[in-house]
Amino acid sequence: MKDKVCILGVPFSKLTLEQTTSLLDEHIMDAQGGMFHLITANPEITLASQTDEQLREIIGSADLIVPDGIGIVMAARRQGEPIPERVTGYDLLLSLLAQGNERGWSFYFLGTDELTSVQAVEQITLRYPQVKIAGRHHGFFTLEEESDIITDIRQAKPEVLILAMGAPYSDKWLYKNKEELRGVKVVFGVGGSLDVISGKVKLAPAIWKKLNLEWAHRLLFSPVAKGQKSRWRRQSALPKFVFRTMIRK
């Protein structure tokens, strides 16, 4: 398709952030629209999909996959099918919150730790007062608690469900519970975006973003949650991704 480019078997959208937001806006405002599952995929997730059969299945069933990483943009350029810009989970979340503030949409936030979740929602309420908070819950719940959380989301019927449990866990969790959450209009994972909104993690300075070095800023300055891989270990996927895409070309 002209609006997509396939990188290591993953069909990435060529839509800009503005176009992606407009697409989601149209879907939310369509009363007949079902659940729209968007995945924000970076080189690490793309590489993981090569050996993770379930992840490939999830990617294949998603409605849209956006390029959350400069490595994806560079790989597309090498293939001669350029992507205009990155569409990160953080930027897309802010864009949808701004749109939701105008439309009066409701959001449910699931993930990160309890304190960060509370502080992030407080900040969102201050910045986007017309956004309705349908609910929130931290991401360190047990299997016994999971059914109550799903029931809470179903009863809240948010237009947008935001998952902040890390990738690919967020997408795998949704895939497992997709049938029970059909009332949600749009759902996607945002990684550590709530940590940034809450103030727990500082956003990379403009110069780092301009040089496409946000990954380096996170590597050097962002804390890693208990139970997660170290950032140094995760970044080891980058040279592997570059090698794979160059060989494939």
TrEMBL record:
Keyword Glycosyltransferase in record: yes
Segments forming a coiled coil: none
Database matches in InterPro entries: WecG_TagA_CpsF
Protein keywords: Glycosyltransferase, Transferase
NCBIfam families membership: wecG_tagA_cpsF (TIGR00696)
Protein name per its UniProtKB record: WecB/TagA/CpsF family glycosyltransferase
